[in-house]
Design brief:
two-stranded antiparallel ribbon, single chain, alpha/beta, binds manganese (II) ion, globular, Arginase, Chain A, about 30% helix, 9 helices
């Protein structure tokens, strides 16, 4: 494994020198920075939760993920990569307007633009899932509609709630309508739970998405999932979105719309590691609702661990980009 010749400009505080519970809370104890020079990846909070149809509380998600992420260590043993070697900062929170999803998604698109213009990979901490529309707008503004890999208990392709178009169950439909998301280059995996109607199962497929329901996902070996994703997204620009409700509520009870019968964190980790080699343009972890979490902050802990896996995917892709600039191909370790 080639060693980076230059030390990253921004790194976390060394936990062997200063205990993890000391200092001002930032994502993974990385520096709080609002400049893009020398930054590879920025963790960005979006504390918006009034797109929820049931439990609110995800406005406190970024804060909870930051606190739980103080445990993260640099080395990812399975992918053999230092997740912070890409120079990671905490950008802080984007401006939002509680109660106004329409203005908020516009603010998210605007707020992410300077990062994307500078080639910084955003890792967004939600926030409810309506914020994804703002992220997809920002990515599409760079170079047209993007693909998406989504792990979620719900397809989020419903049309409206209470006559409102922007809710946490609708961002994928809105994104397709707006032309910022290409469903034919997108995978939605992990769906389960009761639905409003039999047609709910078919709707995302009719829109062009590749859908892997929860049972079908669990029947796939990680490598099979990785191959499936690679075949759908091909070589185009693709974002990754993680809704913690894809996990079983035993592991992630603090979320907006829990569904029983979900994945274990370990199963998710293995599926994510099978995506190593894909150069995602951005990531998010959404729907962490701390008011419903356990006293041990289980959901926030799992969300921080998933964020570590996403950092690792980004680090692997960046390493390949610098050492093999012409190749973006799938290369599972
Ligand atoms: Mn969702």
């Amino acid at each position: 494994m080639p060693k980076a010749s230059l030390a990253p400009r921004y790194q976390p505080v060394d936990a062997l020198n200063a205990p993890r519970y000391t200092g001002v809370r930032t994502f993974a104890r990385c520096p709080a920075v609002r400049a893009t020079e020398g930054v590879g990846l920025a963790a960005v909070g979006v504390p918006f939760d009034t797109g929820t149809s049931y439990r609110a509380g995800a406005r406190f998600g970024p804060e909870a993920i930051r606190s739980a992420s103080t445990l993260l260590r640099p080395w990812h043993p399975q992918l053999e990569v230092d997740v912070f070697a890409q120079s990671v900062v905490d950008w802080g929170d984007l401006a939002i307007v509680p109660g106004n999803a329409r203005r908020t998604v516009a603010q998210i698109a605007e707020g992410l633009a300077p990062l994307l213009d500078a080639g910084v990979t955003p890792l967004v901490m939600g926030g409810d899932h309506s914020i994804l529309l703002g992220e997809l707008r920002a990515h599409a503004a760079v170079d047209g509609p993007v693909g998406l890999v989504l792990l979620d208990a719900h397809a989020d392709t419903w049309d409206h709630y209470y006559g409102e178009q922007l809710f946490h169950g609708t961002p994928l439909r809105r994104a397709v309508e707006e032309g910022v998301l290409d469903p034919t280059r997108s995978v939605i995996a992990g769906l389960r739970g009761p639905l409003y109607d039999a047609a709910d199962v078919d709707a995302p497929r009719e829109m062009g998405f590749t859908v892997v329901e929860g049972d079908a996902l669990l029947a796939l070996a990680p490598q099979q999932f990785g191959d499936l994703v690679q075949n759908v997204i091909r070589d185009g620009r693709t974002m990754f979105s993680f809704d913690v409700d894809v996990l079983d509520p035993a592991f992630a009870p603090g979320t907006g719309t829990p569904e029983i019968g979900g994945l274990t964190p370990h199963a998710v980790q293995r599926y994510l590691r099978a995506l190593a080699g894909i150069d995602f343009i951005g990531f998010d972890v959404v729907e962490v609702s701390p008011p419903y979490d356990t006293p041990g902050q289980t959901t926030a802990l799992v969300a921080a661990g998933i964020a570590h896996e996403l950092l690792a995917l980004s680090a692997v892709a960046r390493g390949q980009r610098s050492s093999q600039p012409t190749r973006s191909a799938h290369a599972n370790p």
